[in-house]
Amino acid sequence: MGSQSFFSARPLSSSPLSNTNAKVEEKWLGYFPLKRKPLYPRLSNGGRVRASLNADSKAIEIPRRWYNLIADLPVKPPPPLNPKTLEPVKPEDLSPLFPDELIKQETTNDRFIDIPDEVIDVYKLWRPTPLIRAKRLEKLLDTPARIYYKYEGVSPAGSHKPNTAVPQVWYNAKEGVKNVVTETGAGQWGCSLAFACSLFGLGCEVWQVRASFDQKPYRRLMMETWGAKVHPSPSSITEAGRKILQKDPTSPGSLGIAISEAVEVAAMSPETKYCLGSVLNHVLLHQTVIGEECLKQMEAIGETPDLIIGCTGGGSNFAGLSFPFIREKLSGKINPVIRAVEPSACPSLTKGVYAYDYGDTAGMTPLMKMHTLGHDFIPDPIHAGGLRYHGMAPLISHVYELGLMEAISIPQTECFHGAIQFARTEGLIPAPEPTHAIAATIREALKCKETGEAKVILTAMCGHGHFDLTSYEKYLQGNMVDLSFSEEKIQASLANIPQVVA
Ligand SMILES: Cc1ncc(COP(=O)(O)O)c(C=O)c1O
Predict the structure, then answer these.
(1) Pocket test for ligand 1, best of 155, 188, 405 (most atoms within 8 A of CB)
(2) Start and end of every Tryptophan synthase beta chain-like PALP domain (predicted)?
(3) CB 68 within 8 A of CB 108
(4) Could you tell me what percent of the chain has a pLDDT over 90?
């Protein structure tokens, strides 16, 4: 059967930070006050640690609601379009790929969505996650800045990705779906989905970007341990994959290609749905559990961030941490700078155009208005596989256009230099993706050293790098290079963006 679009495949309030009316505010934020002795946050090994909040803070509970930033934006984001009619996508257009509840979440304007008890129950394996002050890194940098990082690497898969994998699989299971398919770049998302499927009894098939498949055999083995079937992408199983292999048999793959392969498979089978690890509104929504938790943690230690930094691939960890803070910013209570950091080799926000484009390489998804390098742009195989995506979440792109955040790009050697400083002071070995946030944090902390400003910097440390040590080996042996950004290559792929007058 031919590769085709799935369209044709089948017929405020008060501030939580003030002290007034505490009960109402706690409800508004979705927290339940602690009744008895505070519990210290639990790690995935079953232990409880106090370190999650540092010695001088109080423990908090897992948020009970996800936050939808769209409800509070002064201008609503442009809708995704059906590429055939150029009309806004209808729920029925999406139903071959997603269960009804996730389609509702994708399009809702509701401010908060209750987190199902079954999902909270799984979140308890690793949430609340620690908020840690990087005192030793501050000391190394000799900076007056106070650096905090919210650490999501304590989840079973080792990153923030299970925050959305678990609800996505749960909603699919609830609606009787038997199998899900997906792409994975870093391997973190594929692992997260495989883990969630193992909990709720669904079959799971993953297209792992070739470069990542070759560099990270242990990520594949983790997915297989949780029961998933893993294919390198591009693969010869799908038409989308075969087309790429015809042009370039040694293609390193990309997230855009792997998405095309998984969408193609889901669109052909009534028993199979598709899950996405980033980009879409419902994915960003689920990740806000990070920021909601962090708001409370910062409040508990009496700190307010001046700057919030996160790395951006499709944008989900960045949105997860920053969106609840943007709500507070919009209400005028706080005014942090919000900064996204992308790789110099794949700079969709800083060098892309803001236009309607496909979310995948083969052009099977709806058209989304986003910052894009062109859907057939294949980024060089940098080590941060999770950041090798041609576009940016439409909601983040919109927030960027509204001027509510800023973006920079950093080359990978500077990122790994920062990661080594971080590992040798804070102990944790970051995944290649958050090394971008760490490098940007270090840049800012060193600026503070020059100016004498004691800024509070909050960083998303969204995953550990225990299965990314080949990248560290390259860096430590002096073999890592900065892959040069090619204007020509980008101009060529930008020329293929569909012409949509909107
Ligand atoms: C650890 C980690 N961080 C960040 C990302 C980038 O994705 P996103 O921008 O959606 O957070 C990935 C993607 O795979 C990842 O594995």
Answers:
(1) 188
(2) 125-463
(3) yes
(4) 84
Is-contact 52 97, C-beta < 8 A?
Answer: no
Quick: pLDDT tens for 290-314. 999 999 999 999 999 999 999 999 9
CA-closest candidate to residue 287, choices 259, 326, 315:
315
Residue nearest ligand 1's atom 10 by CA = 316
| Ligand 1 site, residue 278, Cβ cutoff 6 A | yes
Q: Model-level pTM greater than 0.85?
A: yes
Looking at ligand 1, which residue's alpha carbon is closest to its atom 14? 386
Name the token pair of 285.
Answer: 């929504």
Burial of 250 (C-beta count, 10 Å sphere; 0-12/13-18/19+): exposed
80 DSSP assignment: P
Q: What residue owns the CA closest to ligand 1's atom 3? A: 433
In the reported structure, the alpha carbon of residue 451 is separated from the centroid of ligand 1 by a whole-number distance in angstroms of 32
Question: Residue 122: phi, psi to the nearest 5?
Answer: -75, -40
The verdict on the CB of residue 72 being under 6 Å from ligand 1 is no
What is the number of residues in the chain?
A: 502
What is the pairing mode between strands 65-67 and 131-133? unpaired
The single-letter DSSP state of residue 251 is -
Pick from 151, 276, 462, 468 the residue to mutate for probing ligand 1's pocket: most ligand atoms within 8 Å of its CB.
Answer: 462
**Domains recognised in the chain with CATH numbers:** 24-158+281-481 (3.40.50.1100), 159-274 (3.40.50.1100)
DSSP of 23-54 = HHHHHHHT-----SSPPPPBPTTS-B-SGGG-
Tokens linked to 230: 């893993």
CA distance to 47, 134, 185, 189, 372, per residue, from 44 (Å)? 7, 21, 24, 18, 37
Closest to 219 in 3D by CA, of 252, 192, 255: 192
Amino acid code (one letter) for 440:
A
pLDDT digits over 43-98, tens only? 333 333 333 444 334 478 999 999 999 999 999 999 999 999 999 999 999 999 99
* Residues 323 and 400: beta-carbon distance below 8 Å: no
pLDDT digits (tens, 9 = 90+) for 93-137: 999 999 999 999 999 999 999 999 999 999 999 999 999 999 999
Residue nearest to atom 6 of ligand 1 (CA): 313
Residue given tokens 């908090």 in the structure block: 60
> In Å, what is the CA distance from 483 to each residue of 151, 383, 434, 443?
28, 10, 18, 21
Distance 191 CA to ligand 1 centre (A): 12
> From ligand 1's centre to the CA of 299, what distance in Å?
26
Report the separation in Å between the CA atom of 160 and the middle of ligand 1, taken as the mean of its atom positions: 8
| Helices of type H across 5-116 | 6-9, 22-29, 91-94, 100-107
Å from CA of 84 to ligand 1 middle: 31
